[in-house]
Amino acid sequence: MASERRPRNDPRREQTPKRLVAAARIVFERDGFYDARLSDITAEANVAAGTLYNYYRSKHEIFRDVFREVADELTAITPEHVSGQHDPARRIEEVNRVYVQAFRRNARLMALLYQAGETDEEIRALGDEVRQHFQDRVSAAIARWQADGLAFADLDPVYTAHALTFMVERVAMAWAAGRVDYDEHTMVDTINKIWLRALGLDVPSARS
Predict the structure, then answer these.
(1) What is the dihedral angle through the alpha carbons of 79, 164, 196, 152, rounded to the nearest 10 degrees?
(2) Tens of pLDDT along the chain (208 residues)?
């Protein structure tokens, strides 16, 4: 007797893309972007070899969905999710700490982003989206602190936000990838001190 065809809303059918993305993350983190094979992903997901092609045509496409989950996690980090949101210094300290920890959890994929982004504009755009998210929030915060007389008034909010966030990204990448042996607490504490002193938030009132 012929096997019964699963309906489109069958829960098992709906779970297949999630299984493929979860398996792809394991394979990409283990083998790297260039050495990862679609056959390894289907084997890791324990699905038929042709199943993946019902959802993805290439490893670039599935990597986009893998990294989209990372992007969603990183861009979900907002001042509203930390306890010190009304205190600029506390806000900076907590957001940087949470961001660095999230970066470390996703370090391997963040490193692979540069590889995959070389040949895929959509993947590169996802990385830019994460950076832009933080840069926009930081520049807006700097402008507010300047208006309140808390931060140095002569700093350009956008340029300053870019300099500070790029610094965090590069330091976090080197640490998470194991290229430097940093103590996490000291690293985050140092980053925060640099931010506070650069912005003038460590003095009683901002200097114009």
Answers:
(1) -100
(2) 333 344 545 555 568 899 999 999 999 999 999 999 999 999 999 998 889 989 999 999 999 999 998 888 888 876 555 554 568 888 898 889 888 888 888 888 888 888 888 888 888 888 888 889 989 999 999 999 999 999 999 999 999 999 999 999 889 888 887 888 999 999 999 999 999 999 999 765 544 4
Contacts of 42 (CB under 8 A, 6+ apart): 20, 23, 48, 49, 51, 52
How far apart are the C-alpha atoms of 113 and 130, rounded to whole Å?
12
Distance CA 126, CA 16 (A): 23
Q: How far apart are CA 146 and CA 143, in angstroms?
A: 5
- The answer to whether 205 touches 149, Cβ cutoff 8 Å, is yes
Alpha carbon distance 99, 75 (integer Å): 9
